[in-house]
Design a protein that fits this description.
By secondary structure, the protein is α+β, with helices and mostly antiparallel strands. The chain has 7 helices and 17 strands. The strands form 2 sheets. Strands 8, 9, 10, 11, 12, 13, 14, 15 and 16 form a 9-stranded mixed sheet that branches. Strands 1, 2, 3, 4, 5, 6, 7 and 17 form an 8-stranded antiparallel sheet that branches.
Length: 317
């Protein structure tokens, strides 16, 4: 069943990263063992993709501004003031890519981390009185999942509720929940996990949002279920509207998921990923009809081939 393709390429020490206001080699970045984010999970991050177009010899950042709007919002949740505007962040990212001279599909990972206690601050788990730092890594990354479709397990792990940790923010510590669910799924022979909330309603997969198709209507759980309102998720609403497909938010329980005609995941990393099986239920051998339509349009948009969506693209070179 294992359909995930793992990129095992190790980061290269010669790659240049942005850290603490400077561009440096990856092996020149130091984190101390008392780093607060390392100890307590008090960091926030983003995942951004840029796609190389060989026809125009251009590297196109995809929805980069939306990702930095979210990074700033996530940072505020942990009392981190980046002191940078969205434009500043986009400019730093473009500079970083140019320095590395990447001319292929890449993935950008900005992280804002709580760093160390300010002078005079007492030891403890806290947010105020702690310094912070911003790092941005960029690395080559193509498709890392099998786009033909994956099999998911309905996890026995519940999604951390938004009343416990705000789900609008991409907080590093929250991902322990995803890692546990992912491991359980892998141990049982599945590729990824979908988690429910305490009411038994669907939230999201470990690093992506969940959609189903039922009677020609595309449905996805609302953010109030306790999920990250993914940028790809939001894109799917616009894609459906462009394609004339009805797309609604609706709470979905286990029975709704298992009775669906199609199911797919969305995320910057996985893009539009068909789910061909859920627990013992089989949706099909490959992507369903609606999933294929949405996925094909997404592919065209990310390659900047659809003029009405060109505002989602920011060229690097
Ligand atoms: C938990 C979780 N849900 C959903 C998503 C999808 O979000 P996006 O489409 O903004 O990448 C991600 C990926 O960032 C995620 O980690």
């Amino acid at each position: 069943m294992s359909a995930l393709i793992h990129d095992t390429s190790a980061p290269k020490a010669s790659w240049i990263v942005y850290s603490d206001g400077d561009f440096k080699k990856l092996d020149e970045v130091n984190f101390y063992t008392n780093n607060q984010a390392l100890n307590y999970g008090t960091g926030v991050f983003e995942g951004i993709r840029a796609y190389w177009s060989s026809s125009s010899s251009q590297l196109n950042l995809f929805r980069v501004e939306e990702h930095y709007v979210r990074l700033i919002e996530s940072a505020k949740a942990l009392k981190i003031d980046l002191g940078l505007t969205i434009n500043d962040l986009v400019e730093i990212t473009i500079e970083l890519i140019k320095i590395n001279n990447f001319k292929q599909d890449i993935y950008i990972r900005p992280m804002a981390l709580k760093k160390s206690l300010m002078p005079g601050e007492k030891f403890g788990v806290k947010l105020s009185g702690v310094s912070s730092t911003l790092c941005i890594n960029a690395m080559p990354m193509g498709q890392y999942v099998n786009s033909l479709g994956i099999n998911c397990l309905l996890s026995s792990w519940q999604r951390v509720s938004k009343e416990a940790i705000p789900s609008y923010a991409k907080i590093t510590g929250l991902y322990v929940n995803s890692a546990l669910a992912y491991e359980e799924a892998r141990e049982e022979g599945f590729d990824d996990a979908i988690m429910l909330n305490s009411q038994g309603d669907c939230t999201e997969a470990t690093t992506s949002n969940v959609f189903i198709v039922s009677n020609d209507t595309v449905k996805t759980p609302p953010p109030s279920a306790g999920l990250l309102n993914g940028i790809t998720r939001q894109s799917v609403f616009e894609l459906c509207s462009y394609l004339g497909i009805s797309c609604i938010e609706s709470n979905l329980n286990k029975q709704d998921l298992l009775a669906a005609d199609e199911c797919f995941l969305t995320g910057t990393g996985v893009e539009i990923l068909p789910v061909i099986g859920l627990n013992q239920k089989k949706f099909g051998d490959s992507a369903g009809r609606m999933t294929t339509k949405i996925s094909e349009l997404y592919d065209d948009i990310k390659k900047n081939r659809v003029s009405s969506f060109s505002h989602w693209i920011t060229p690097v070179y």
